[in-house]
Amino acid sequence: MIGLIRGYIHAVDAVNYRLGRVIMYGIFVLMGILLWSSISKTFFLPTLWTLEMAQFVMVAYYILGGPYSIQLGSNVRMDLLYGEWSTRKKAWFDLFTVLLLIFYLCVLLYGAVSSTAYSLGYWGTEPFSFFAGLLTGSEEIGRMERSSTAWRPYLWPIKAVMIVGMFLMLLQCLSEFFKDLLRIRGEVL
């Protein structure tokens, strides 16, 4: 069982580490979009797509970079008491708090799936069955949701990024949960 847990930790950490190292450079994409926005507004006709595209890139940067941030422990933490605790006491506290985070991420993931199904034209209350129906051919994509701006892009791609990001963050939190369990048992990671 310990070998299976270690394999899960290694696989999830490897995927999120590699993805995080790639997504880290998304800030340059964002800078390029905003630079083009400034140049086009100054010298040419202003473009319609730059502000909204910058928002989409920022969402992808933030959501897909979250698992990498959790893995590195670079999230904000109050060190008033935590810094003085033993490794075992920290693991017990982290074990409890990661369970709360897992619950919160499950709620967010359900919301992301529901929102994506809505953006694909599904008006019902069972978004998971809608996606299963898309795979089997029993459901069809309806009238797709578009942004209300002048550019009017489809919203399902960024909502799909939210699903992937929330799912990867959930997997990373489970990895952190297992790491805390191993620390409590005195295992070396």
TrEMBL record:
Pfam families: DctQ. One of its GO terms (molecular function) is transmembrane transporter activity. Part of the tripartite ATP-independent periplasmic (TRAP) transport system. GO terms for cellular component: plasma membrane. Belongs to the TRAP transporter small permease family. It is found in: Cell inner membrane. Keywords: Cell inner membrane, Cell membrane, Membrane, Transmembrane, Transmembrane helix, Transport. This is TRAP transporter small permease protein. It is a multi-pass membrane protein. Its main location: membrane. Residues 30-181 form the Tripartite ATP-independent periplasmic transporters DctQ component domain. It comes from the Bacteria. The chain crosses the membrane at residues 22-39, 51-70, 91-113, 154-175. The complex comprises the extracytoplasmic solute receptor protein and the two transmembrane proteins.
